[in-house]
Amino acid sequence: MRKYVIMGVQGSGKGTQAKMLREDLDLAHISVGDIFRWHVRQHTKIGAQVKRAMAAGELVGDDLVEEVVRRRLGIHDWNYGFIIDGFPRNGRQAEFFMESYDIDAVIHLELPDDEVRRRVLSRRLCPNCGMDYNLIADRPEVEGRCDICGHGLITRADDTPEALEARLTDYHEKTRPVLELFRRKEVVHDVDGRPPVDEVQSAIRKTLGLSGYRADD
């Protein structure tokens, strides 16, 4: 059983890399961001709290994040392990996590702030079906329209320049220290998040000692 955490600033590709590992290793991919976005689309009480935080460019409160993670891991559908992204984001969350689970590795995707801004401010979302787009590398066939359902695309509430700057500041002040906590256990693997997706995935596989993967598979 493999239990991984993937960390990196917003726009570093955590979700994409986690999904690639999930598909090949039969892991449960637990994305806190995806869970919260589902609640927002379903107009739940949790969704209302998340929406307020996103609009203000803030992180969701620790109590709510820990509750969501605990519930998700409590489903126990991860027979071969899991990879979690979007958590932990601060020292309290990291301590909660380390007390409950033995982590095999923390994958840290490194990305300069300038590249984060370029990527994040190019993202678009379909509010109807949830499909993600990026105007740099994954443009819709019809400008401003979803390829799947034809709905108009929007910019996420937390993808504005102001919200992004607040999140970058929050990341450097609160999340980076989390890496130092994990480094004490010698489980952190730093990977350059700038190359193409397949090259980043190959670098992750190499640093984790996983065999049988080629970038052109």
From TrEMBL:
PROSITE patterns: ADENYLATE_KINASE (PS00113). Residues 123-158 form the Adenylate kinase active site lid domain. ATP binds at residues 11-16, 123, 195. Its main location: cytoplasm. InterPro entries: Adenyl_kin_sub (IPR006259), Adenylat/UMP-CMP_kin (IPR000850), Adenylat_kinase_CS (IPR033690), Adenylate_kinase_lid-dom (IPR007862), P-loop_NTPase (IPR027417). It catalyses: AMP + ATP = 2 ADP. Zn(2+) binds at residues 126, 129, 146, 149. AMP binds at residues 37, 58-60, 86-89, 93, 156, 167. Residues 122-159 are annotated as: LID. Pathway: Purine metabolism; AMP biosynthesis via salvage pathway; AMP from ADP: step 1/1. GO terms for molecular function: kinase activity. Consists of three domains, a large central CORE domain and two small peripheral domains, NMPbind and LID, which undergo movements during catalysis. The LID domain closes over the site of phosphoryl transfer upon ATP binding. Assembling and dissambling the active center during each catalytic cycle provides an effective means to prevent ATP hydrolysis. Some bacteria have evolved a zinc-coordinating structure that stabilizes the LID domain. PANTHER family: NUCLEOTIDE KINASE. NCBIfam families: adk. Belongs to the adenylate kinase family. Catalyzes the reversible transfer of the terminal phosphate group between ATP and AMP. Plays an important role in cellular energy homeostasis and in adenine nucleotide metabolism. This is Adenylate kinase. The lineage of its organism: Bacteria, Bacillati, Actinomycetota, Actinomycetes, Micromonosporales.
